[in-house]
Write a structure and sequence with these properties.
The protein is mainly α. It is built from six helices and three strands; from the N terminus they run H-H-E-H-H-E-E-H-H. The protein folds into two domains: about 80 residues, Arc Repressor Mutant, subunit A; about 30 residues. Helix 1 packs antiparallel against helix 5, helix 2 crosses helix 5 and helix 3 packs across helix 4.
């Protein structure tokens, strides 16, 4: 077992600066979604996940698993989004019972608009300030962290995540 030691002052400073940068980026991205599209990060996550799915619909359990959310959280979120006309139940299975959820036309249009707006904010607040070399180092480091914490996710690291 490796000996545990404290961080040096410059290591603490690096950690605190990195955490502050993450919080500020998350805040700006959330503000952009609210300001430009009138949606929360949670709504954006659902919209994008459904937008990427075949036929723009999924079983609710698959959506829950894809988002890594509890089923109750997904259910409450979908109810709110259904009331706004962004998603609708899909019927399949025995007796046509509700087994899935899909994007409405309004939901598809909002998803496309939000993806474009979010991409612009990612570029503005994150990518535009990086040199190609810095971007390569950050990508390699991020892949190492993912592989160390969740090795199975490393295989999916090349998928586009919004």
């Amino acid at each position: 077992m490796a000996e545990t030691r404290t961080l040096e002052p410059e290591e603490w400073e690096l950690w605190h600066t990195w955490m502050l940068a993450q919080r500020l980026l998350a805040r700006e991205f959330e503000r952009g979604l609210q300001r430009d599209c009138g949606i929360s990060k949670a709504e954006f996550s659902v919209l994008v996940t459904l937008w990427k799915a075949p036929g723009r619909e999924m079983r609710v359990g698959e959506l829950s698993e894809s988002l890594a959310w509890e089923k109750s959280r997904v259910s409450h979120q979908l109810t709110r989004m259904e009331n706004r006309g962004l998603v609708e139940p899909t019927q399949s299975g025995a007796g046509g019972r509700r087994t899935g959820i899909g994007l409405t036309t309004k939901g598809r249009e909002l998803a496309e608009s939000a993806i474009l707006g979010h991409a612009g904010n990612i570029r503005r607040y994150f990518l535009d300030s990086l040199t190609p070399e810095q971007a390569a180092v950050m990508r390699a480091w991020s892949e190492q962290v993912v592989d160390r914490i969740e090795p199975r996710r490393g295989e999916a690291a090349n998928e586009h995540v919004f």
